[in-house]
Amino acid sequence: MGRLSGKIAVVTGIGAGIGKGIALLFMQEGAAVFGCDIDSAAAEATIAEATAAGRADSLASLHPCDLTKPDDVTRLIGAAVARFGRIDILVNAAAIAPHMATAAAMDFEEQWRPTLAGEVDLVFLACKAAWPHLVASGAGSIINFASVNAYRGSRSFGMVAHCAGKAAVLGMTRQLAVEGGAANIRANTISPGLVQTAATAKAGATDDGSVRAAILDRLLIKRLGRPEDIAWCAVYLASDEASWVTGVDFPINGGVLAV
Ligand SMILES: NC(=O)c1ccc[n+]([C@@H]2O[C@H](COP(=O)([O-])OP(=O)(O)OC[C@H]3O[C@@H](n4cnc5c(N)ncnc54)[C@H](O)[C@@H]3O)[C@@H](O)[C@H]2O)c1
To answer: Strand (E) positions, 29-88?
Structure first.
């Protein structure tokens, strides 16, 4: 408890999955969280959970907020600073549920472009908008989400756009670390393996089928990930415990890349 006491975090995508898990754990560890989601009902449900846990004062949210739209991102960062006074931590957990198709089948306008906008553009836009506030903080921390698929392909799904998007976030974040060092802004990625969330359920990766079986077969720890497996890594990276950690990636994946 208290590893993030006194810190102000913007967490995107608080309505579901990893972003929700991070928002709730950050508050438990003493941070105030300004969240957002494109899905208002989902964001409201997270707020209701925080309120039931007695943390109503530690969570505010802008929703609906479409982070692929620069004006919405500007509104988000402005609202966060207006509510809590500054920003120390930016967690970019929101992302589109990516369009899954092979390169041969993928439609450029309908599938490729929205996937890249929803995985890459929104991370860039939030980092850019929050940047002056992270400089002002004097100890800013950016946590972005790559994926195990930034490192390896998939036999189960056509995911050429997703692999490109997550590799882009990895490279972008490394360069953000380079550009932020002089201002003591740290920037790191977390690369989750398969975590049980709305997005992975929608993709058909977590039901009791052959895809799940193939994934479990590769895992050294024989269960799918949970949002809190990822959220604990985010707590570390957001905290002063990680004050000399920047420009790196944390693969949290049950050992899937080890064999
Ligand atoms: N779940 C996994 O197995 C896994 C694996 C590797 C990487 N990741 C990455 O982790 C992050 C979180 O994934 P998740 O599984 O929790 O996703 P999720 O779909 O469960 O939750 C994402 C949230 O972001 C919101 N969102 C989507 N687009 C948005 C937009 N344009 N503006 C505002 N909000 C938007 C959604 O409404 C949703 O509430 C993503 O970057 C994802 O790519 C997830």
So the answer is: 32-36, 59-62
